[in-house]
TrEMBL record:
Gene expressing this chain: ATP20
Compartments, as annotated in UniProt: Mitochondrion membrane
Keywords on record: ATP synthesis, CF(0), Hydrogen ion transport, Ion transport, Membrane, Mitochondrion, Transport
Protein name: ATP synthase subunit G atp20
Molecular function as annotated in GO: proton transmembrane transporter activity
Native organism: Mortierella alpina
Length: 118
């Protein structure tokens, strides 16, 4: 049995073993989401709501270039916007930490250790 066939066989075997638990957890998550959806009285947006949102975005885009618009915003609104931006940045940083699996920097091997393998 060559290496490709063996690797493929191992991958299929692992996927088969994981399919049961993954399917079960997906069904559980779906049921929980359905219960939350019903309990919170959620509903998909209507066509009128989509149109209202589209009009609001269009209106904002037209007046966003005006300097007067930015002058009329209170300090409290700027402060709240700053807090939202800080929160978004914090979530970004946590995502980076999770992605790196390290608090600081990436685990990069030096060039010397790389040459030892060749």
């Amino acid at each position: 049995m060559n290496a490709v066939t063996k690797t493929l066989s191992t991958a299929v075997s692992t996927a088969t073993k994981l399919s049961g638990p993954v399917l079960y957890n997906a069904k559980v998550a779906g049921q929980i989401a359905k219960q939350v959806y019903i309990r919170e009285g959620m509903a998909p947006p209507t066509g009128a709501q989509f149109e209202a949102a589209k009009e609001a975005v269009t209106k904002f885009a037209k007046i966003a270039g005006s300097a007067n618009m930015w002058k009329n915003i209170s300090k409290e609104q700027y402060f709240k916007a700053g807090l939202v931006a800080a929160e978004a940045y914090t979530f970004f940083l946590f995502g980076e930490i999770i992605g790196r699996r390290n608090f600081v920097g990436y685990d990069v091997k030096s060039a010397d250790s790389h040459n030892e393998h060749h």
